[in-house]
Amino acid sequence: MLLIIFLDMMFLGWHVQIIFYIFFAVLIYFIYYLLRSLKLKDKILTKQLVKSAVVFLIAVIVALLIQSDNLTQIWEYNPYSTRGTESILEKQSASTEQSGSDFYQYATNWSFSPGEVLTFIVPSYYGFGKSTYKGPLTNNQPVEVNTYFGQMPFVDVAQYMGVIIFFLALFSMVINWKDPFVRYLTILSIIALLISFGRTFPFVYDLMFNYFPAFDKFRVPSMILVLVQLSFPILAGLGIAKIISAKKEKDKRIELYIRNIFFVLGGFFLLTLLLGSPIKEWFTSRVNEYVSTIRISQPQKANMFNALSDYMANMFLTDARLAFFFITLTFGLMYGYYRAKISADIMVIAIAVLVIIDLFRIDLRGETYVDYSQIEQLFNKPEYIQAIENTNDNSVYRIVNLKQDGSIGSISQNSNFNAYFLMQDLYGYSGIKPRAFQDYMDVLGSPANPTLWRMANVKYIVLDQQKNIQGLKLIYSGNKTFVYQNQNALPRAYFVNKVEVKPALDMLNMVKADAFDPVDIAFVEEEELNVDIPDSTAFVKIESYKDETINLNVNASGNNFLFLGDTYYPVGWKAYIDGNETPIYRANHDFRGIVVPEGKHKVEFVYLPESFVISEYVSLGLSSLALFGLLLGVFLMQKKKKESVEE
């Protein structure tokens, strides 16, 4: 019962990729120990493992059912997301090579590399993520810079778990190799590391991507390094424990290992002290080599790296010196313990303090203290939001901020900031976007498209410079902020003159070319629809618009096609005309449409997936049973304890 509750709490976070990796680690655990028991011909151990696996599987199923109200929604959404299917451009491509596909490239963008394993020792080996530069280039003012130049698109921090942890874990693998748990953690770490290389080392990754269930839904291969970062501290701890027990057993072999490693690492530390200038020159040459590869494609970044090369070289040299200092001191402490110079308690405490100092110096790199009042100011209402609110526009509409200056709420900042002010934004961030919307972005290149604005009910556009664009009326100008009202914006719901069948990619290319009027025609992809042209008496009025229910009053002059400028999602969304369900058609690839018969009607769009309704009751029932079982178990344990005391 405790296992079920633990698993249920783990599922509550619903970071599906991390949950997957945890179960992957458990799978490796059972496979390793099962093979080991079969090799040893230990029938009792084999039986215990099978029994444990069955119990664990039952607990997982129950915990999943408790969380089924969330799980079903993720499962159903996946096929309609960027994680569930390829881009429309890729579907139309003649290329069948998996490793060259956009879908594969998207999944493997943050592939680790063998060279970056060295960042486990020296975190700035490939530059660093965010750090704070303060020097002559900025008049001694602190400025946040990102100096990473590895193969991943960007990183905020290095994949650093501490040089002491890293070396102690490796040492533990050597001196503890006969321990089956150490072997398991070592195997798990190696597998995870190889998978993290992604397209850099495709042999292992591609096997998982192509054949392991659900693995192709994930991106950022380097994320699986969490298993390495979980295993290595455990291995390091087991190594320390082994050293303590080995001394009691007077194992001279381990003492010899520690002494030799101490002198070797000490030698490396001395070299970093003596060869500071050559080391900096070597690192600077690596930076210059990288700069030469981006000088044309990213001239601004190239200039920044040129200017910061000395700063980066100094950071690397300092990190290298401290890394070898910390690890030399660690092995010195262990050798001192072996030689009876210090106690086990002092050794363990000293190593723990060194680990904390080492990790904190990296964790705090680039971090700046921010006063709470400054945090509150982040959510001050921007001038463009205030300008839009000042219009007193009570209709349903969307906005889009196309500023390129990286200001909060802008397209280049790529956030959902505008939603904080209850503004429906055409653009924003999601790690698992609707595939159809992303198809628009893939074909159009950006959301700056007048036809898309019309269809999607984009009524207000924010720019960082004043422009004369047909159909846009300037309603506010400020400091590099210009707010335009789109006078060609269509309402969220409206009648369309006619409907035609057209392949999605052809339709998207027409949007890109602004080659059709969304009021005159809508495109569906499969079924031919017989609709009438609405006359002047036809209208659509939004009575209420909420996240899960949309109520419309409509008058159709004939068999009219109603276009709704919201994302098409067939799982859960249903449409009703006067209480009777009617089909929802996929209109213009990413939007919804229904056919409304002649006359006045109440139209309602409702989001209520049947799977959610059913799973909600399942979740409630099993949660209650699990809680009851836990309380019953505690009661019986207390009762048994009381009876044993009385006896």
Describe it:
- This protein has helices at 2-12, 16-40, 43-66, 68-77, 88-92, 102-107, 163-175, 180-196, 202-211, 225-248, 252-274, 276-294, 299-338, 344-363, 372-377, 383-389, 435-444, 450-455, 504-512, 610-646; strands spanning 130-133, 143-146, 398-401, 424-425, 458-463, 472-477, 482-486, 493-496, 498-501, 521-524, 539-545, 549-556, 560-564, 573-577, 580-582, 585-587, 591-596, 599-607.
- The strands form five sheets. It has a five-stranded mixed beta sheet.
- The protein starts with a helix and ends with a helix.
- The chain has four domains: 1-67 and 611-647, no CATH class; 82-363, no CATH class; 377-486, no CATH class; 493-608, Immunoglobulin-like (Sandwich), CATH 2.60.40.
- Strand 9, helix 19 (504-512) and strand 10 (521-524) form a beta-alpha-beta unit.
- The protein has 647 residues and is of the alpha+beta class.
- It has 20 helices and 18 strands.
Protein traits:
647 residues, globular, alpha+beta, 4 domains, single chain
